[in-house]
Structure formats: structure tokens, C-alpha cells
Amino acid sequence: MSESYIDPYKYQHSYADELADLVTPIKPTVIYQPHLQVVNHALWEALGLPIQWQDNDTFMQQLFGSESLLTQHSVAQKYGGHQFGHWNPQLGDGRGLLLCEIVDNQGQRQDLHLKGAGPTPYSRHADGRAVLRSTIREYLASEALFHLGIPTSRALCLISSNEPVYREQQEKAAMLIRTAPSHLRFGHFEYFYHDREPGVAADIATPKLQQLMDYTLAYHFPQCVDCQNPHLAMLTQIIADTARLIAHWQVVGFNHGVMNTDNMSIHGITFDYGPYAFFDDFEPHYVCNKSDHQGRYRFSQQPSIGLWNLNALAQAFRPFVTTEDITDALDTFEPILVEHYHHLMLKRFGLTETTDTALAMMTLFMKLLQSPKRDYHISFRQLAGHLDWDSLTLLRNEYVDIGLFDEWLAAFKAEVALQEVDFTTLQSRISLANPHTVLRNHHAQAVIEAAEQGDFSLFHAYLEILKNPFDATTKIDRFAAPPSIGDKGIALSCSS
Ligand code: AMP
Ligand code: MG
Questions:
Q1: pLDDT greater than 60 at residue 1
Q2: Which of 61, 200, 265, 478 could bridge 65 with an S-S bond, Cβ 3.0-4.6 Å?
Q3: Sequence ranges of the domains in the chain
Q4: pLDDT attached to residue 489
Q5: What pLDDT score was predicted for residue 477?
């Protein structure tokens, strides 16, 4: 391993320094027999991290040693959140530490955050650890979404251990370092807005909220600083980014599962992976979270929950923005989401223009996927790989409602003609817009079971595939096949 120069000034801690009143300095708690199990080499390089830290002992020195650059100013962050619609001020990162910030090769500031670092003042009597299962799930999903082009936090490395932890059964603890432009959640702003003396008017900012807003504008929304109302500009940006993110989830069939406001990033990225799932069959009302008895976070409700969460966030902007401006800003959410959704959905059909006829064609196809239910991802991917219309027409044999298929195909053909797309171009666009492989819970489960026995070969094999989702040539068949009936639509609980 060739040594690289270690620049101590690379490891910054603006959050810990500038918002010292909003954090608790704390070091990771040593874990039994830690092992740097998986490294995201591309990300490691993009961050410019020293290559010699990939040595296990050296890395553990960095995490747990007293002279560590990574943890010299590590902190637990305080925040609150609306959980299943109820305000909970007793949150904060109970098991995660913000280690430091690094400016990556693109000039973008990235937090390094250690999940499963041990108890913090916000652990609420829990152990502060993450289990191997959940760190694997976060690693796989964040890489999968990233390579599908969906904004997300990313996994830098996974540390396994022999430390037992107790959930529904005994499991092994693991840790994950993830990166994100920041770990600022909607719940940060909510907490410091609501944490006020009784009787203080709602349109007065607490000093801590003021600090948080100033910091966020300066470090993460510098483009808003010179706007007429910087806070309004920032809120408007968060609304737009969140709308586009959720549109993207709806297009790929991703159900986040726990859209509590403490799991919502101000950067409009997918954040805090829990019992998420890509659905298998097209099920608009799919609920991936077994603990979500009311189906609050079901797939079809993600757009309206996104808006609900933005409303909760917008409360914290009341000291800075008029109610009328807040309302107007929130009103932009739906049109942005719908426009982006239409744009991305039509892309899946190889079309670039959002016309009424194109949307009607899309609606027919979605109806077709439900009569009876069909695998969402495979049905879309089957539109790719054809030499001519005759070949594409043969797909009708796959469908039960042939009449509806023919109706859709006629509408599709007409739209392609109207938008003047030649068949070869259409096909190459379709191949690049419809993944050959998406993350499936039953495969993730198989990967986890092998990893729990110490075998990470399946993890690496699956990860490689998820990193090339549009490539149909390098697939291992077992990962491309749809789930059997018993493996469909697996729901998981929150415990992790
Ligand atoms: P989550 O469901 O992962 O969004 O977590 C909700 C809250 O519970 C956050 O404040 C977490 O930090 C905290 N939390 C979750 N699991 C643990 C754990 N094992 N130990 C301590 N805190 C935890
Ligand atoms: Mg969370």
C-alpha cells in the first residue's frame, strides 16, 4: 500500500466549532474486534482520504485512538422530529457521531458520520449501536440509489465486529461511515425553533435557531445569502429539492418507509435508510415498514408526506419569512414534483416531451401493470432490447389483458411517431432509463444471511451489480430474476 501525504487541515469541523451550543462532543465507544470489512474505494479516492488508512489497525487507531484526525472533534448532534405525525423533542443522534468534514475532489464539503458509534446523550437508554443487517442494508441501498442517479447519502465503509447486541434476537453490532453534504435534518430546525421559553412569540428566533440558520446559509446555501430574503430562498430550494427527490422515488418504485422529519435531509437526498424497499409488483399502496400499521408512509403517500414534512420544517422559518411567502413557497412543491415525475416517467418510455397524449399513454401502461399485478421493474425493462416494433409487439403474450395491452401499444406507437423518435434512438433511451436490476429485499436478505456467517462474497457480487443497474450484460442470473411469490413484497420492522 503506497503511503499518501496526510494533511491535518483536511479534517475540518465547522459544525462542531460554530455550533458548539448545539452539539455534545463525544468519541466513538470501542467495539469488540472491529474489522474494516468493506471499503468504498471510489468514494475514498473522491474524498482524498489517505490510502494507508485502509489498513485495519491504522483505521481503528483513527476511529478509537486518542490522537486521531478523524475524531478529534467528533460530536453527537441534537435534533427533534415528527415521528409518525407526533412531535418528539427527545431525539438527537443516539447512535451516530459527526466525525469531521472533508472537502472532496469536486470542492463539495462532505460530512463523515459514524453510525453505530456507541451511546450518546441522546441514546434514550438504547445501546447506541447499529446491527450488521442494517448497515448492510444502508450500504447496498445508498449505492444502488446513487448509481440510479437518485440523490442520496453514501456509504464510505462498513466495520463489522464481534460485539453482541440485542434486538428481537441477539445480533452482531457493526458500524457504517457515511457521507452527505451535511447531516442537517428538518428536525434540527424544528427542534431549535420549538425549544423556546413559554410565552415567547412564534415569530421570534431563539439564539440557537438564529445560529443554525446563519451557519446553514453560509456553509450550505451560499447562493441564497445575497437574495432579498435569504431564508425564503433557502426554504424554496429545500422544497424544490425535496419535491424532485420524492418524484424520483415514485418513478423507480422506492418506498423509504420512515419519513419522520428527523430522517429528512435539507439537501433533498435520500437519508437514514431503515426498512425501505423497492416494491416488486406495482403496488401503489405498498407499505414496506411492518411497524407502520396505519400505512402513513406507504408508497402512494410519499409525496403528500413530503409536503407535510416541509410544512413542519417551514414552521421554523416563521421568524424570518412571512406566512404568505411560506405558503407561496410550499405551493411550489406539488407542481415541481409532478413535472419532474412526468419528465422521468416519460423518459422510461424513451420520450422527452410531456404532452397530454404521452401522459395518457403512461396512465394506460400503469393500469396494465395492475391488471393483474406485474413486476414493475421487469415490465419496464422489457420495453428495451428490441430490434423493431414487431419484436416489441410480442410482449403482448406476457399480458393477461391483451385488449388493454393493444390499446396501450397503439397509444405508445402514435406518441413515438408524434415526437418523431426513430426506433433505434427510442431503444437506446429506454435501456438507459430502465434498470435491469434494482435492489430486491429478498436478495438483500440472502446477502445479509451469508454476511452474518462471515461470508461477504455475496455482498460484493450484489454490490457490483447494483453499481451497474442499466447494464444487462454482466448480470448474475440469480440477482436478475424476480422474486418467487413467497419472496414478494417483504416488509421489515424498524428495529436496527
Ligand atoms: P431512526 O429510527 O434510525 O431514525 O432513529 C430514531 C432515533 O432513535 C434517533 O434519534 C436515533 O439516534 C435513535 N436510535 C435508534 N437506534 C438507536 C440505538 N440502537 N441506540 C441509541 N439510539 C438509537
Ligand atoms: Mg433516523
A1: no
A2: 61
A3: 8-184, 349-433
A4: 77
A5: 65
